[in-house]
Write a structure and sequence with these properties.
Structural class: alpha/beta
CATH class of the largest domain: Alpha Beta
Number of domains: 2
CATH superfamily of the largest domain: Glycogen Phosphorylase B
Strand content: 5-15%
Number of strands: 13
Strand order of the largest sheet: 3-2-1-4-5-6-7
CATH topology of the largest domain: Rossmann fold
Helix content: 40-55%
Largest sheet: 7 strands, parallel
Order of helices and strands: EHEEHHEHEHHEHEHEHEHEHEHEHEHHH
Radius of gyration: 22 Å
CATH architecture of the largest domain: 3-Layer(aba) Sandwich
Amino acid sequence: MRIAYLSADFGVAVNGSSGSSIHVRQVTGALRSLGHEVRIFSTSRYEFDRSTEDGHLQILRLEDLAGVAAAAMEHEDLGNLDHVRREFRRLLYSEYLQRALLPVLTEFDPHFIYERYSLFSYAGVELGRALRVPLVLEVNAPLSLEAAKHRDLVLKRAAAELESLIWQSADSLLVVSEMLRRHAISLGVSEERISVVRTGVDCELFNPFVSGADVRRQYKLDGKRVVGFVGSMKPWHDLDTLLAAMQLLVADDPTYHLLVVGQGPRMEELASRNETFVTYAGAVEHRSIPAYTAAMDAVAVPYAGGQEHYFSPIKLFEAMAMAKPVVGARIGQVASVLTNGETGLLYEPGDAAGLTASIKGIFALLDGGAALGASARATVQANYTWQHVATQIVESAEALLAGARA
């Protein structure tokens, strides 16, 4: 099939290092591996990782008079409402994208449009209607709620109403978690049009035979009990509880050490604490992450309680694919994917003492958690590869096309 993949989020660089960027590349790569022709249409090409081929990638920047208007807004003095210019830029881009893409997609003649949902982006809905092809919409989070809570969203009502209408207008809605499925239903999306499709992992890239020796030498980790965290250090990543647990561990055994891999909004604040038991590696190319994960003896997946967890964390599946013993917060998809005592250990979110006990429990095992890791890898191989994701996407589209033919 011919698939038009649309990503209209200015914050997602197709060849970037973030989890969102990786998701775009892995999904489109897996679809191609199944024999489908995929063309990517995006706002942004590079952020960090330049290793991806660009043959089927077309960057559509905001141009013409819409681009002039967006550029002019950069010079407006908006004070505390600075975020509003980014919101208007997204709305302008939705209008521009329809006009710019319609002739391109008319020539390409896709069997369906696959869009990674982004805030204020309704171009996929309009293009699907104009071309009379199905829209399969991938939703990773309720972005209007997330932006209102963690960012400075100004057009809250417009964002929420558009989000509801866009989700309801998609022919098929692919959500990454059961909680997100329930949220979509609450917005009026027909239950039969929703499928839960979790994120995945490349089990060939992330495998237990990768060596972490060079990373351990680089950061002087030999002889240490290394607990690792890989992520973007967003507000929902509960690094405060992880650091509190590490302080308790180091108080009893100074060989414990935390290796933090990634870049994010809390990086500067956390690094300024100058805690000697923590190494911050910063942003790392995705293809290098397996070596860093291999340098870890155990991997922590911390999240705070008292909030909705709609996510499907790629880093959880990557650690499991590396056959690493994982300690995760008993919340959201972490709790539904990890089976306590079989594929990892769970602790109550926000409980530093519980996290400490779980980490100690792994190091107390005679095999160092090898059995937990082996079971975790078998689980992701059977259920959570990118090929599984691509197969579900194709099945959803084929059902829509069959229904249209009927």
